[in-house]
Amino acid sequence: MNYQLNHLKELESESIFILREVAAQFENPVLMFSGGKDSILMVKLAQKAFYPGRIPFPLLHVDTGHNFPETIKFRDELVKETGARLIVASVQDAINEGKVKEESGFNASRNGLQTVALLEALEKGKFDAALGGARRDEEKARAKERFFSHRDEFGQWDPKNQRPELWNLFNGKKEYGEHFRIFPISNWTELDVWQYLAMEEVALPNLYFAHQRMVFERDGILLADCDYIQKKPTEVAKEMMVRCRTIGDMTCTGVWPSQAADLEAIIDEIAITRLTERGGRSDDKRTETSMEDRKKLGYF
Amino acid sequence: MAFKYENSELLRFTTAGSVDDGKSTLIGRLLYDSKSVYQDQLDAVEASSLRRGESEMNLALLTDGLKAEREQGITIDVAYRYFSTPKRKFIIADTPGHIQYTRNMVTGASTANAALVLVDARNGVVEQTRRHATIASLLQIPHLVVCINKMDLVDYSQEVYDKVKSDFEKFAAKLDVKDVHFIPISALNGDNVVHRSENTRWYEGPTLMYYLENVHIASDHNFIDVRFPVQYVIRPNTDEFHDYRGYAGRVAGGIMKKGDKVVILPSGFTSKIAKIDTIDGEVPEAFPPQSVTILLEDDVDVSRGDMLVRENNQPRVEQDIELMVCWFIDRPLQLKGKYTVRHTTQEARCIIKDIRYRLNINTLHRDIENKEIKMNDIARVVIRTTKPLFVDAYRKNRITGSIILVDEGTNETVGAGMII
To answer: Considering only the top CATH level, what class is A7-193+289-297?
Structure first.
């Protein structure tokens, strides 16, 4: 027998170790579920980590109200299948209650407002660890994240004062009222995620596969034509064969022209692509350090 | 279903160096030549180089992610980079090389299979080279690659290469390093990085990329001494799995097989492995670094922090533990100070019983006069723990041989220790 794991199995083992460590070290963890492939992967890994037991923490979905309808449908099916408990934190409710103010104009997005709904849901549920599917290869500020990322009582991240992480030893100690963000798939790349989902034959929302959709172009990014985005007079929607590489809310998730209709074709596409997956995310493009700035405030 | 790119191994390596020795250029070259830098990243880097008034694209901006780092043009923290070739997936822990960042180097080195040490061919082996080699040896990184860089600036001279090699070997003889390779490169021009250089015909060894793709890492784990720290107990309490009691954990050493007799520490009870379970079904054996669930034949009391081992091959059970410790924070290490200690899945409290000496990591001198241990210092200490830990020497097993110290007031991780 060959005692060498392939890279996907080694990453899987590392992530399962982190998930179990969270269940052991924290009293009340929650898994942040966006409906995207990374959080679908997280659910799969959590099932593996605690089998034959159920996933010992609920899923938390921060619903911007601007989701692709396919996302919500998929989410509800997955919840049913896993028997997990679902908590929905609604940005629309936060707006209705006057806690946050909706952006207006052509590039209006509820992305920034998610932070308020998220922090409030964490506080309300008294969650001391929020598991997220962020990866270090996604974005330059995320490249500096720890697996166990400490947040103060305001939910803020202090990137210059992070706890060193060595070997398999994770320090989840904190004061009452503070919490941790935990990123079990830190070391996975986009390609790893797709390879693994293919290897494990994990079901995914149709949005990830090439389909016909009405889209229009803005700042070099293709956006889905929908009620949530106000088009400028010069912007004209046309039907194209596209797919999503990431799924966020409809106002900031770019779609890509693609013919990739199955996992094998997607893996081939990713392996040769010259653009990062967040290249289609307009929320990252507002300034050079927009991810770091949002993360410091408590963004996922 | 079989997919492409699936059968590759994972290699983690660390690079340490300062701004001037071409580390960023080398990483940029590896990422660029393996087509791991995306067009929009390059566009962003180019735009921000222009904004700063730099005439050429500054590849360091690819690796420096934080605002303060970009402002000051330095790397503060460990940055993780990813690239892959059809043969392997690589994780680079990119750490700053200056003495004040020793703690970052130690962090990056803790999980690495290999370390790249950069030497500027014009300057030869300098203090920083010795420091990196010392840390690689202390952290027992299995493979060390000395990249003699900027060979283009010394006319690709074999003499220069030989001099660096023999100087390094002289110093390394005092260290505990197992496997050292020397490669003459020019990161700027790409000589011997990914492609073989025509300029160093006298060099018969591999290129850096060939080395990274082929170095034998299968035996970097300990496959001899069975160590299974119990991480979490799985008890589903459902009708289907009514009496199920599984011990979840990651194999830290040895090969565990169904039917093997095991001893449970600290209780000393013995039992046999009834089953090694995963969601995909039972597996016949488990080995490092797999995460599995072990079921025992007997109904014995086992909980987090316990360790499953073999009867005739047990770790040391100790309360007085000798360590090399690297200190991480501004406040000095306190003799007689109390800290929380984390070791595998165990947690205990400890007191610093003795500081034996402070190690000068540039000269390897053991200082027994000045034993104030400040940030980034490395020292040999003895701790006394509130309960016994099940330890091995770090040389024997990096998982059961390592600890971290946590400040009881601030909860910060204040030190990392390697058990002697």
So the answer is: alpha beta
